[in-house]
Amino acid sequence: QVCAQLCRRPCYCPWVPPRCPRGSPLVLDGCGCCKICARRLGEPCDFLHVCDQSQGLVCDYSAAPMGRATCNFEDIEEGCEVNGRVYRDGEVFQPSCKLQCRCLDGGFTCIPLCQEDVRLPTPDCPYPRRVEVPGKCCPEWICEARDQHHPLQDAGAVPRGMSPLLPYPCQEWGTEWSACSATCGMGFSTRVSNQNRYCRLETQRRLCMARPCPALPAASP
Known about the structure:
Layout: H1 2-6, E1 26-28, E2 35-37, E3 44-45, E4 57-60, E5 69-73, E6 79-82, E7 85-88, E8 92-96, E9 99-104, E10 107-112, E11 128-131, E12 140-143, E13 186-193, E14 202-209
Antiparallel strand pairs: 1-2, 3-5, 4-5, 6-7, 8-9, 9-10, 11-12, 13-14
Subcellular location: Secreted
Main location: secreted
Domain IGFBP N-terminal: 1-72
C-alpha cells in the first residue's frame, strides 16, 4: 500500500545524480526508481530515503519520536562511525597510515604504527629533528645545521644542559633506577643515562638497601 501511494510510474529522475557526502554511496530509492544518497548511521530515513545496507543499516522505527525514524544497525551489535564510514564491533581498520584502530562497544581504540623513538644529540648530529618526508607516512630524523655559537648572559656562564667539554647542548635522558639487587642489606641498583660530562649513554650504579637483614641466631654450644 505504501509503495502504491508513494511510487509513481513511470520514473522521472533528474539527469544529473546527486553528489553524496563522503561515506554515503549512491543507491536506488525505496521505489527502486531514482538514485539517491544512502542515509548513514543516525540520519533520518523513511520509505523513500533508504539507509546504507552495505553498512548493515536499516530504518529503525522502534524509538522514533513523532513518527521520525533513523538509520540504525539491523541487530543489537554495536558499531562505530569514523570519517563517515561505519565499522562493526570487533573490526580492525586503519583511518590513516599512522594508526591502526579497532571498533569496540560503540567506540574505538587505536595504536600508533610509527615508532616514537628518541634520538639524542651526538657530535656528528648535534641538533636532531623529526620531519615529515614527502611520499612517506612516518616522520624521520634529520640532522639540522645550526650556529653553534651561543651568546652567554654572563661571562663564563654555562647554560643548563651544556657541558664545557662539548660544542653542542646535551639533552638529558635516562631510565628509572632499577630495584635493589639485594632484598636485605647492602646492594646496588642501575640505570642507563647520559647525565655525565661527555653526554654519553652509560650504565650507572649506586648503593642501596631495601631493609636491614635480620640478625643471625646465636650458635649453640
